[in-house]
Design a protein that fits this description.
alpha/beta, 4 helices, 107 residues
């Protein structure tokens, strides 16, 4: 279960990366998460909306229907989140993102 302290840590890292990099593309492996507190979804949604201009997207590996529903609710405000139903699809999206970011000649 993701609790408020975990959400605070995620928020801190996200805001720091936006400040340092200007843009972020987020991948969250939440496959094992079965639930999270309402306050955590609210906190992470509000933090993301506050820097929405810098969010390229968010990818989530999810299995729990409760967590999937929560991310879908958050996405009504964010509109940049993708839920992946399997590890293979999630990892393919991550590999594609890394390949697109690799300097020429290294990918």
């Amino acid at each position: 279960m993701l609790v408020e302290a975990g959400a605070a840590a995620i928020e801190e890292v996200m805001l720091r990366r936006v400040a340092e990099e200007g843009r972020v593309l987020v991948f969250n492996d939440w496959e094992a998460m079965t639930d999270y507190e309402h306050v955590t979804r609210t906190r992470l949604t509000e933090a993301t909306v506050s820097v929405l201009h810098a969010i390229e997207g968010g990818h989530f590996l999810l299995q729990s229907r409760v967590v999937i529903f929560g991310v879908q609710i958050a996405n009504t405000a964010i509109r940049k989140l993708t839920v992946h139903p399997s590890r293979a699809v999630f990892e393919r999206a991550l590999e594609d993102a890394l390949r697109q970011r690799a300097p020429e000649g290294t990918g």
